[in-house]
Structures are given as C-alpha cells and as structure tokens.
Amino acid sequence: MSENKNTVKELKEKLFVSRKNGVFRMTEEELMQCDNYCENYKTFLDEAKTEREAVTASIKLLEAKGFKEYKCGMKLSAGDKIYRNNRGKALIASIIGSAPIEEGTRICAAHIDSPRLDMKQNPVYEDNEIALFKTHYYGGIKKYQWTAIPLSLHGVIVKADGSEVTVSIGENENDPVFCVTDLLPHLATDQMKRNLSQGIKGEELNILIGSRPFKDDEGSELVKLNILNLLFEKYGITESDFISAELEAVPAFKAKDIGFDRSMIGSYGHDDRVCAYTALTATLECEKPYHTVVTVLADKEETGSDGNTGLCSAFLKYFLADIAEALGSNGRTVISASECLSADVNAAFDPTFPEVNERNNCAYINKGVCVTKFTGARGKSGTSDASAEFVGRVRRLLDKENVIWQTGELGKVDMGGGGTVAAYIANLNIDTIDVGVPVLSMHAPYEVVSKIDVYMAYRAFSVFIAD
Ligand code: MN
Ligand code: MN
Q1: From the CA of 344, which ligand is nearest?
Q2: pLDDT for 300-337, tens place per residue?
Q3: How far is the CA of 328 from the centre of ligand 1 (A)?
Q4: Peptide linkage before 217 cis (omega within 30 of 0)
Q5: Which residues contact 101 (CB under 8 A, 6 or more apart)?
Q6: What ligand has the least distance to the C-alpha of 115?
Q7: How far is the CA of 11 from the centre of ligand 2 (A)?
C-alpha cells in the first residue's frame, strides 16, 4: 500500500504541472535575497511615480554603472554600455555583446507609464469659493477608486519663454496633498443607483486645490486668484502656462510591505514598474553578455502605445538600426534575429473574485514569474501569440536556471482581456513572449504583488539577457 502511494507521488511529480508555492522551492538564503532585493524596489517605486521620474531615476542608476548616452555615429564595440533617452519619457539601455550583431539582440520591453489623472490644459477653476483642477484620466481606471485618497502632483510646465519647471508636490512628509471629493453616503441615494462604471463620472474627477480667497481685493474668483498668485510666486507661472504642461496626479502613498508575514508589496504603479525595475536591474548587473542586450522602458502603453514615446513608434526600431550600422551590419538583419520578453504584469487570481479566472490557466501570487503565450480578447483578437518553439525555448531556459515560473492568461475566455507591447514588437519580426509579475488590484491606486514573484521576474530577465 505504502509503496503504491510513493509511486503515485513520484508519478504525479513526473507527469503533472508543478503549482507549488515558491516558498517550498526556495532556500532560506534565496528568500532573504528576495526580500532584500524588494527593499530597493520599494525605494524605486517611491522615487519614480511617473514615466518622467522613472526615466530620471533609471538614468541615475545606469550612469552609476558606467552607461553613457548614445549619440548617432558613436563607435561601438563589445562591452560598451549605452542608453538613449527618448524625450525624457522613454528609455533604452543597451550593452553591446561579444557575438556578431547579426545574431540578434536580447530585448526586454517594459513600460513606465501607469494609470493616473492628467490635468487638462485649462485646469484651474473656482466654484463657490473652492478652487479645483479639471482632469482627464489616463489609462484604464475604475473611476470611483480615485476619490477620497491623497494625491500628489508630478510633471513639467513649459513657460511662455520656453523655460521648464519640474513639479513634484505631495511626496515629502511636510508637503500638502490633493484629493478628489466624493459624496457622503447620507446624500448619495441617487448616486448609489448609478452603475459602478458611472458611480463617479470622468467630469467628476475634479481635484481640490484650495479654498482661501485673495485677501486685499474685491471681485470674483478670488480663490482662483489666490492659487494662481501662489503658483506665480513659487514657480513663476501664469494660467496660460498650463496649456504647455504635463501634470499628473498620482496616489501619494508610499510603497509598503503587506501582510503580517511581509510577503507582499502594496504600491501605486506596480504595473509596470515592477517589470521595468526588474529588467533594469538585470541589465545593470549584466557583465559582458554574449548577445547585445536591449532593455526598453516605454511610455504610453496604458493608452495603446501610440505616440512617439510609445512602442508603436519607430524609436526602438531606429535604435536597433543605429547600433546595427555602428557595428557594421544592417537594422533589418539584426531586428529579425532578435528575441524579446515583453515584460508586463498579468492578473493574479483573487480569492474574492474567483469567477473571472479559469483556475488551470491563470496566474497566482507566489508561484513565480508568469509566462503568457498569448494576450488579446475575444478569440485572441489583438494578440501576438508566441510560437510553441519560442515558448519551448524560454521554458527550457527558465527551468535550467531554476527560475520559478508559471503560465497564466488574462482571465476567462470572453470575460474581457487585454494586451501589452508584445504585439508591436512581434510585428517587427521579432520572437516575442509576455513574461511578468502577477498583480492583485491591477490599475487600482494601490496594487499588490508578491515579493517572490518580483524576485523571479528579476531572475528571469537576468538569465534571458545572459543567454
Ligand atoms: Mn502593463
Ligand atoms: Mn496596465
């Protein structure tokens, strides 16, 4: 009897997909390394709340490791570490490999923009002696989640004379913060009858910015005047300067450990800084790779990747062509021989909402980095479906290097769906697959990831670029 039991256990181990929690597959030392790694990730989250701040923070890390800004025409040779800053909102970091460049590059592509509230171009107004900002939300949000939480304000303002002001208010302990107000339940009888998507409407996402009128004057709009006067004193800006500004309101929370066991991290914007940071640190620590490493941190993924800082633009293609030429080859050959991990998050199974997932094919927290063969919605529309051969290659690599990974798709068939930058990179004739971290409460102001999965994403990107 007991012999039979052993056979069953052995056979299951041999024949079944392993869905063991990462904790059982890591040594104490590995778990410690994982937790230490995540301390630095939390620092990055707090430092880089917007795509612009992520570029600035990443360049700081790159330069400390000897990466130099790449200018067209620069001579390149194996071991060179370079980066290209695309308009302060997207970034490519690269290490030239020892292999002939015709053998292609190893690309990790993550995005550094996250859902948020953007200020409109004429944002300031006063209503009944309260001053507010009008916003237009960015990316897919559940609007009701963005009320009654502290918000900070980040971005740039380009003044009439062309000079630039960088803004970051609400992150330091003594800074003021901002917020969107919501109706008290006592008077929400009508509001509560709206459906969830209309519970708060886009034009109700107005941000509270002040309430004291300008004192020594008479007339209307004195609260607005007072605010504009304060802003003029502090930044030298006038109302029309908002027209040439990009101001983003994001949650003012700091990244924190979650749970009695501190096994998870709660933060704004894990999607997709969790893959941006892990891909970036893998690149920072990569020495003398065989293939040329190309790590892309893109903007505009949350709005469809269009625009000159998004991955539908040619900036990645041009960069690859530039380095191909600098190394005596051509862009077409190098691009076609390249491989890419589209480094983006996936939805984690949530026990409170089990009905949206199909349990055999969804990602779970703590079960490692998630490899997603295809994305898309309604019959794989809008997908880039990685070939069985490429999935097989990635799978062999992760297994060989003891990276804990799982596979998962985004929700049940016909439940919804979504895409990443994978399709746009695959469209360049590059083998591409989605690899990233499972997230709870994705696109909410406060998202949750597991530390083990963060660490395994870092390990996955490390072994991929070193291969
Ligand atoms: Mn994403
Ligand atoms: Mn997203």
Answers
A1: 1
A2: 999 999 999 999 999 999 999 999 999 999 999 999 99
A3: 35
A4: no
A5: 292, 323, 324, 327, 328, 329, 334
A6: 2
A7: 40
